[in-house]
Known about the structure:
It is a single chain. By secondary structure, the protein is an alpha/beta fold. Helices cover 32% and strands 9% of the residues. It contains eleven helices and eight strands. The chain has helices at residues 5-24, 43-51, 55-60, 67-72, 94-108, 123-132, 149-155, 174-183, 214-222, 238-247, 267-275; strands at 81-84, 114-118, 138-142, 164-168, 189-193, 228-230, 253-255, 278-280. An eight-stranded parallel β-sheet has the order 1-2-3-4-5-6-7-8, covered by helices on one side. Helix 5 (94-108) runs parallel beside helix 6 (123-132) and helix 6 runs parallel beside helix 7 (149-155). The chain is elongated and about 100 Å long. Residues 196-209 and 295-348 have low confidence and may be disordered. This is F-box domain-containing protein. Residues 11-35 are annotated as: Disordered. Pfam families: F-box-like (PF12937), LRR_6 (PF13516). Residues 35-82 form the F-box domain.
Amino acid sequence: MPKPKRFVWRIKQNNQKASSSSSSAPPPPPPSPPSPLWVELPREITSDILCRLGAVEILLNAQRVCSTWWKACHDPTMWRVIDMSSARDVDRDDDDLTKMCHIAIDRSQGQLLEIKVKNFGDDDLLKYISQRSSQLRHIRLVSCDDISDGGLAAVAKNFPLLEELHIYLSVISAVGIEAVGRSCPQLKSFTLNDCGFRGFRRNGIRNLQINVNDQALVIAANMPELQHLALFGNNMTNEGLCAILDGCPRLESLDLRHCYSIDLKGDLGKRCRQQIIDLKYPRDSTHGYEFSNHICDYGSSDDDYPSGLSEAGYDYDDFDCEGYYYGDYDDFSNPFNSDYLGEDGFFW
């Protein structure tokens, strides 16, 4: 039975209204852009990439890139290694850098295995590390002038698993070394480059060390498991070196560069070559050494140098405001010959 004309007309009219209303509706929103490719990376790869940035870059920038990175940067496994070596590359004072180091340590949640600090830090920071990082295996301190010798000795007992301790351009006495050796029986690698060379004082009084072998002797007596030892610019004599060879029978590598009070021409040199696989001699080149290897000496007059070494003949532009001389000595040879040795046989 055919439909009435009026009914057909209404259907057409309704279809026209529907078509008109649909054409006036706003277009659907465009599809969301695809997520960055790095978001799709496995979590362990993301963590590995971020770890290479260093703690400062992570805290200041990387963790703000996206929610994925934010979560990764709060994962305790990300902070098993804390590298603050590039801290001075940013315009931050010591307090800010210390706070960032605290944050990094807190995020590790006790899983910290290795920490590197450069150009900042004090005894309080070292104490903070020791109280929250009982699993620590590796410590590297560079130019940490505000970390005292006593500060390191006081917290050494909190690092029973420590395997590596590397100290550059910072001071640690025999007492501090002894405390570390006794408290860290698993120590296998030790580096000490405390102050490089020392010369004569301006007031004419020589700043003599009572026993130039005291550091070597405590290393020998308290670090029997050492496999790697670097004593750049140390003032020990053959006596101290013999003690180390006796007390550290597991030594595989020994760096004696700039240790000019040692004589390896005779039997001692032969013993070193037989016992040590990787041996660096006092006069070996320091090419590629990451820290300054210039020789620093005080000087003001011939009276300060009883053997004849004085400022005469030197350009004052070679001295800094503290009276240190930065001469361009050959890395391959002893810059001083025996004419300049004191009665004690060493420079200090």
